[in-house]
């Protein structure tokens, strides 16, 4: 399994994309490092994962929860943001979002750890 698969696929939101970003290829140490990066930037008391992609990152972040902070919504790959917006409506508009990779520009409340360059987007 590789992080980037050079073949067309259809995303969870039904978008046809020219390549896949497969975060299942990230090791547990990779996910722990990303969680450490996130916890240094944001305080949160609850972690809300987007199933299935955000589950591993959410578990790695739970140890960094602090009382009295807000909710952080996490996912692996941002394409259109449909899942993130739905989660924000469920948990509250004061939540923030973090994604490992963003294929496109994110709304101001979602922070990508890695962002594809304009010229690399589908």
Q: What's this, in brief?
A:
By secondary structure, the chain is an alpha/beta fold.
Question: Can you offer a commentary on this structure?
Answer:
The structure is a single chain. The protein is an alpha/beta fold. It has a single domain, classed as Rossmann fold (3-Layer(aba) Sandwich), CATH 3.40.50.2020. Helices cover about 25% and strands about 30% of the residues. The chain has three helices and eight strands. It has a four-stranded parallel sheet with strand order 5-6-7-8, with helices on both faces. Helix 3 links the parallel strand 6 and strand 7. The longest helix is centred in the N-terminal third of the chain and has 14 residues. The chain is globular. It starts with a strand and ends in a 7-residue tail after the last strand. The relative contact order is 0.17. The model has no long low-confidence stretch (mean pLDDT about 95).
